[in-house]
Amino acid sequence: MGMPILVIIVAASFKVAQEYKRAVVFRWGRYVGLRGPGRFRINPRSENVAMVDLRTRTVGIEPQEAITGDSVTVRVNAVLYYRVTDPNTSITYVILPSDGGVPILLDVE
User: Fold this and answer.
1) pLDDT score, position 62
2) How far apart are CA 105 and CA 109, in angstroms?
3) Tell me: the pLDDT tens digits for 40-70?
4) What are phi and psi of 95, to 5 degrees?
5) Residue 21 lies in a domain
């Protein structure tokens, strides 16, 4: 009875981070470090892992119309490119635009 449970716990303790991802490790809810790329081991009872993608991402912004000082209508199309450089900060402090939590505002003057 105890052997299958031990096998499940050991199997759950190994994780893999792809080359373009980093694993942010939290122990009892506190940041303890980054892991990856590659295989790594965690304690499944006390540690949680959040994977962060380091590749450049794009977000399309809806076209905006504006009127210039000489009364000419201008239509602006834009694309937002972003890339995570600090995985810890991106998990603990930042809401990424791709999550839908931050409305993208475009101000044309």
Assistant:
1) 83
2) 13
3) 999 989 999 999 999 998 888 888 888 888 9
4) -100, 120
5) yes
